[in-house]
Write a structure and sequence with these properties.
0% of the residues lie in helices and 60% in strands. It is built from no helices and 14 strands. The chain has a six-stranded antiparallel β-sheet, with no helix packed on it. Strands 6, 7, 8, 11, 13 and 14 form a six-stranded antiparallel β-sheet that branches. A hairpin with a 2-residue loop joins strand 3 and strand 4.
């Protein structure tokens, strides 16, 4: 039997009858490649884009590989954090601010500060919600970071989902 992975499951529990009803189930997309399709290096950090996936709920999650070059570093990855916010622009020019960022098993909404081990590619994600139903790609994905008190951004362009 094939194993299935789910991104989100909603249940309604009825404690009077000891039953539950499955209200919503969203299958996880497993089409993201393991390796980066594009890589950018800046400020001792290598950021590889693995791809972006749209869910039925108009949510887009972009999958990345984050690697510290040469030695361990503490990296701050900004989500929704004022002037330092990461952002995405769809193919109609609409701007979106992320609702969640992850590095490894850590997650945050405004930002996430995490130690990244030297030369180890760490799975990282950034999620955007309520995208236009007509959008089919991101024209710009701007990722904001801070390493060693230096804020900077990395930009990827023309990403289908």
């Amino acid at each position: 039997m094939a194993k299935k992975t789910f991104e989100n499951i909603e249940l309604e529990l009825d404690f009077t009858t000891s039953t539950f009803t499955l209200k919503k189930i969203v299958a996880a997309d497993t089409t993201i490649p393991d390796d980066a399709i594009e890589t950018i290096e800046k400020e001792g950090l290598r950021v590889g884009l693995r791809g972006c996936v749209a869910a039925e709920s108009r949510t887009v999650t972009c999958h990345l590989l984050l690697t510290s070059i040469e030695f361990d570093r503490t990296v701050k990855f900004y989500g929704n954090y004022g002037e330092y916010s990461s952002a995405a622009f769809d193919n109609f020019g609409n701007q979106y601010i992320p609702t969640k960022v992850t590095i490894g098993k850590g997650e945050g909404t405004s930002y996430l500060e995490q130690r990244v081990v030297a030369d180890v590619a760490t799975r990282t994600t950034i999620r955007f919600e309520n995208l236009s139903t007509q959008a089919t790609s991101l024209s710009l994905l701007e990722l904001s970071f801070r390493v060693d008190d230096t804020p900077f951004s990395i930009k990827f362009r023309d990403i289908p989902f």
